Amino acid sequence: MEDGGSLCGGVEVGRVVGTSTPLESIVDVRREVVEAGSLVAGSYVVAESLGGCVLGIVEAIRSSTEVFNVMSSSESVEWFARAVGEAMSNYTTRRAKVRWVSYVEPLVNGGRLEAPKLPVEPGGLVRLARPEVLERVFSPEGRRWVRLGRLMGVDVEYRVNVNALTRHLAILAVTGGGKSNTVCVLVRRIVGGLGGTVLVFDMHGEYGTLGLEGRAKLLSPAKLNPASLTFEELLELTRFQGTQQERLLRWLWIELKRLYNMGRLGAPDLIPRMMEVLGEAAKKASNHQALKRIFTEVTGFEPSKDPPPIEKVKERAMGVLSKLEDLDYEYRDILDPHTPTNLASIVEPGKLTVMDLSRLDEKAADAVVSHYLRRILTERRKWKATGGEGYPSPIIVVIEEAHVLIPAGEDTLTKMWAARTAREGRKFGVGLVMVSQRPKRLDPDVLSQANNKIVLRMVEPQDIRYVQAASEELSEDLASLLPSLNTGEAVVMGSMTRLPAVVKIDRCDARHGGGDIDLVEEWGKLGGGEDFSDYF
Ligand SMILES: Nc1ncnc2c1ncn2[C@@H]1O[C@H](COP(=O)(O)OP(=O)(O)OP(=O)(O)O)[C@@H](O)[C@H]1O
Ligand SMILES: [Mg+2]
């Protein structure tokens, strides 16, 4: 049955039973409503409370048959069920747990959330919210609202507020849950639809240019100019241990970077010159003072400072040299001195840049990601301070496999810069999107800084509890929904959505891959049509 045209109208669902609070009620749901499939977990309902019409989300639906609880054997259950037959459903109660989120009027007319102050009284009639009402809440007009998919259970477009991304976003799910698909949908709408700037760190080389040709650049592999490296990044890439070697490398690096900054040395010469000084030192440096002379001979310039007092200089120089040789060999195509040093020439404003990290190990990926995070944050800060220097565009940075680069209980360079970006990004227009299938291994501080969350299918109870601890809006009942979600279905929370929503995210076909590989098909291509039927 449906009523007239008010905001509080809609198909009747059932009546409030038991004790009600302004924030939640239990609703006895009519059988035909459940059978028709029109009420699902995630549906929105309306009811008249003592303070006006309120909108709520169905967090859980439960069926129970009390009479079975007093039966002591499975025989008696079987007997009863047979005897009652078709009428069994008369003994069954269907209860929905509803969380009331806001008065409808301010939400629909001003997009403003106003928490209910008074309860819906027991006996109160609850109805399915009308699609027209939901559209005004979940499909607002305006360029900042971009489509992510549809609300679950109704034909209503679901949009998110892109401006809220500077309060960061975590996209979490089991593997294959639809995380990268979600990134694909968001990025295509932001770059293709809004001309936004996005940088994606692609750990598996699966993104390509997301079909945004002309508006996208793929760096495969990701590249760094050695002249833009910090000493810490260089250490990370060379995997240094041992303080004496580190002191020698630091001195040499600082002196050569000084010559580079003064224009006396080109970027392509930085690492070769370093190796040359070390090679000479390994041959003939009798003590650390001799290093100074060798440096001057090789570069043609005196160092600004004396070398640190290092014992056994020849052996140490040899050790550092061999690490640099490894670096040169392993990362030749990443450390490219011809990479522009100007950030805007690498990560072009108004475009998508995808950095393919699939061929790098974790340490190297950490060095690359932290390098760009550091530069983006510092340059955006500079832009804000000067209004003309630094990086000119707000930017969204997507980090796939975030639990590897921003792990709990372990320090990485990316973690340091991600934490800073999470804290300060909002002021400077830098939004962080962290994608992970192992939420409990993700640093809890950085995760809790992500005000927005898109949580797709998740089954592991520890992961679910961990995410709950980091997000106030994920109630026990909403969390219990997560294991039953299908691929691409998600709970969306945070300031990017007007209300927490259960959503079916659009499918994005523009990626290289992500689906499971069809083993049988792939092997079949190798087998060349032989008949294997004897083996079945
Ligand atoms: N919203 C959706 N609608 C339809 N299909 C989807 C949707 N989301 C994901 N899929 C499909 O499910 C598969 C896995 O999706 P996706 O690669 O996004 O998962 P993932 O969570 O990123 O997995 P992984 O942890 O392995 O990176 C893909 O084949 C994809 O096309
Ligand atoms: Mg993925």
Concise account of the structure shown:
With 536 residues, the protein is α/β, with parallel strands linked by helices. The chain contains 19 helices and 17 strands.
What small molecules does the structure contain?
adenosine-5'-triphosphate, magnesium ion
Q: The CATH topology of the largest domain, please?
A: Rossmann fold
CATH class of the largest domain: Alpha Beta
* Helix-and-strand structural type: alpha/beta
Helix content: 25-40%
The radius of gyration is 30 Å
- Bulk shape: elongated
Name the CATH homologous superfamily of the largest domain.
Answer: P-loop containing nucleotide triphosphate hydrolases
Tell me what you see in this structure:
The structure is a single chain. By secondary structure, this protein is an alpha/beta fold. The protein folds into 3 domains: 126 residues, no CATH class; 236 residues, Rossmann fold (3-Layer(aba) Sandwich); 104 residues, no CATH class. Helices cover 38% and strands 19% of the residues. The strands form 2 sheets. It has an 11-stranded mixed β-sheet with strand order 8-7-17-16-15-9-14-13-10-12-11. Helix 7 packs antiparallel against helix 13, helix 8 crosses helix 11 and helix 9 packs antiparallel against helix 11. The protein is elongated. The mean pLDDT is 91.
Protein traits:
536 residues; alpha/beta; Rossmann fold; 3 domains; eleven-stranded mixed sheet; six-stranded antiparallel beta barrel; 19 helices; 17 strands; 19% strand; elongated; binds adenosine-5'-triphosphate; binds magnesium ion
Reconstruct the topology from this structure:
Elements: E1 12-17, E2 24-29, H1 31-35, E3 44-49, E4 52-64, H2 66-69, H3 74-84, E5 93-103, H4 104-110, E6 125-128, H5 131-138, E7 145-151, E8 157-161, E9 169-172, H6 179-194, E10 198-202, E11 216-219, H7 231-238, H8 243-261, H9 270-284, H10 288-299, H11 313-330, H12 343-346, E12 352-356, H13 362-386, E13 395-399, H14 402-405, H15 413-428, E14 430-436, H16 444-449, E15 452-455, H17 461-470, H18 476-481, E16 489-493, E17 501-505, H19 519-527
Parallel strand pairs: 9-14, 9-15, 10-12, 10-13, 11-12, 13-14
Antiparallel strand pairs: 1-2, 1-6, 2-5, 3-4, 3-6, 4-5, 7-8, 7-17, 15-16, 16-17
Helix pairs in contact: 7-13, 8-11, 9-10, 9-11, 13-15
The structure holds adenosine-5'-triphosphate (ATP) and magnesium ion.
The site of adenosine-5'-triphosphate has 15 residues, from helix 6.
